[in-house]
Structures are given as C-alpha cells and as structure tokens.
Amino acid sequence: MHKIALNFEDGVTRFIDATAEETVADAAYRQGINIPLDCRDGACGTCKCFAEAGRYDLGQEYIEDALSEEEAAQGYVLTCQMRAESDCVVRVPASSQLCKTEQASYQASISAVRQLSDSTIALSIKGEALSRLAFLPGQYVNLGVPGSEQTRAYSFSSLQKDGEVSFLIRNVPGGLMSSFLTGLAKAGDSMTLAGPLGSFYLREIRRPLLLLAGGTGLAPFTAMLEKIAEEGSEHPLHLIYGVTNDFDLVELDRLQAFAARIANFSFSACVANPESQHPLKGYVTQHIEPRHLNEGDVDVYLCGPPPMVEAVSQYIREQGITPANFYYEKFAAAAA
C-alpha cells in the first residue's frame, strides 16, 4: 500500500492509500475523491495530472493524443493508468471542491506553549485525531483561535509524531493568537486545525538545495530537515536564516543538531540590525555565496515576509542566474 498526496489547485492537500494493483484514479474514487475523469481508458486526457515525486507505472494502455511522450517524460500522468510503485505526490489541476472533497478538520489540545524569545512562541498540540494527520513538510494549516471564530495560518515546524505537531509563531503585539498564547493558553486547552494546505513543500531532492528563512519562516524548514534527516540526501544543503534583532534568533541548537545528523547540511544565521552582537550581520542576500547558487543547478526554497521574498528574487536576477526551481512562501503577521 502506498500513500498518494493529491495537491489541488486551491491549495488543499488530501492523502489517499493506493495498492500496487489499482490505478490512482480508482484509489481516489474508492476514498470519495472524484479526480476529473471521463473515459478511464487512456484515450481522452481528462484525468491528466502532474507527478511531482515518486515512482509509478503508466503501462501502455493510453494513446498519444491523451498523453504525449514528451509530456510523460516531463512527469505528466494519466491517473486512470497510473499505478504507484512508491509514495507519490500528484498535482491535480482542479479545485478540491470540484473533486468533491475539502479541507480535513481535526480537534486536539495544547501539549506545550513556550516563549522562545520576545518575538517567537513555540506551540505544540496533540490528540488522537492528529495521528491520522498527513502533510508534506513545508505545508501549513489554519489554526482556530480559541474564544473566537477566526483562524490563523501557520506552517508545521515538525513532522507528526505520536499524534503531536509543533509550530513557530511570531508574537505580534495585539495579535489575536499571540494574545491568547501569551496570556490565556495552558496545557489541555482545546484547539482546532484545518488542512493541510499550500504548495510550498519539500520536493524530491535531485540537486543541491539553498534554503532561505526569514524570522518564523524558519518553521517549514525545520519540518523539512526532520524529513531529510530521516531519509538522507546525497546532495549538499545550505540554510541561511535571517532575523531583525539578536533576540529573534531561535532554534539554533536544533539547527546545530540537524547539522550533526545530516552529513552534507550546513547553515548560517544573520541579524539585520547593525547594532547586533551576533558575529554575522546583514541581510540574507549578503550571505548567499556563488557556490550556494551552483551556477543555477540548485533548487531554492524561500520562506519569509514579502519584502524579503522580493529582495531575494531581485538579487538572484541580478546575478544572471536562473535556479532550476525557485519555491517561495510569503507571510505577513496578522494583528487583532
């Protein structure tokens, strides 16, 4: 049995199980998800999707008009013919609603709240329902703010283990979630989450990676690094973590532990404030070296506030380099 992540164009991700004998389309229908489908014979192309990761067999029972050799070589698949040979990630060019599914919702309770610094809160939640939660490292969920009908989006900072997941949350003065976590939250308090969501997640590692994190944009990378530590990688990985002030630096011990576990992983942390006592000052772009960009043979992952995303994009353009892939996630803190 293999696990298939279906990523819909509205950002919703749903996971299904597929046997080696059944097609991905049949497995999805068996589990109540209606991937667009018409002929089921590999003749119409209606079920064409894109396989971002995993091994699979397409067989020979489809025609060129439905899926060309060039498309198959690029990673496009017909889900009515595709049979998984490993866990896979499949991008579906349709909304989750069209496929008659929706975000999954879970109920859990707070297991720990820690103030890592004046600007950062670590939140862990746990519950039996979360043992069924699957997500791709880098994705996020909408967390309900207790005592209100509002939600806030946060990236997982860890993988799910024994029904527990964690988040890094920026402490925003006057922020609805921040006010709850710093003033009211205690272990055992109930919380709801819906997801997973987002197209920012770790793809199959086929070349060197450059990971760029701004502030609590570090969260998705610690989840990714947990995955990489479990599976290993033959390619070099470098993370540059940038913050505004010295007190914004968190989780450095955790990054050091990853560096010890992952042989080809390295990281640096920098502080933008010129009055900083940290040895590495300046912005993330000031610490990207030519070797990190590897003449374009690199996948760049970036998570940070919009100005950082724009600055990095401009910097890479100015170097005259086009990365093989450039994945990014922008976030902005929400106040009350």
Automatic annotation (TrEMBL):
Identify the InterPro entries for this entry: 2Fe-2S_ferredoxin-like_sf (IPR036010), 2Fe-2S_ferredoxin-type (IPR001041), 2Fe2S_fd_BS (IPR006058), BenC-like_FAD_NAD-bd (IPR047683), Beta-grasp_dom_sf (IPR012675), Cbr1-like_FAD-bd_dom (IPR008333), FAD-bd_FR_type (IPR017927), Flavoprot_Pyr_Nucl_cyt_Rdtase (IPR001709)
- Which terms does the record give in the GO molecular function aspect? 2 iron, 2 sulfur cluster binding; dioxygenase activity
* One Pfam family matching this protein: Fer2
The record places domain FAD-binding FR-type at 103-203
Signal peptide location in the record?
none
Arranged from A to Z, the UniProt key words for this protein are: Dioxygenase, Iron, Iron-sulfur, Metal-binding, Oxidoreductase
Q: Which domain of life is it from?
A: Bacteria
Which Gene3D superfamilies does its entry note? Answer: 3.10.20.30, Nucleotide-binding domain of ferredoxin-NADP reductase (FNR) module, Translation factors
Q: Which residues form the 2Fe-2S ferredoxin-type domain?
A: 2-96
Coiled-coil stretches: none
The cofactor required is: [2Fe-2S] cluster
The cross-references to PANTHER family, in alphabetical order and at most eight, read:
NADH OXIDOREDUCTASE HCR, PROTEIN RFBI
Under NCBIfam families, the record lists: BenC (NF040810)
What name does UniProt use for this protein? Ring-hydroxylating dioxygenase ferredoxin reductase family protein
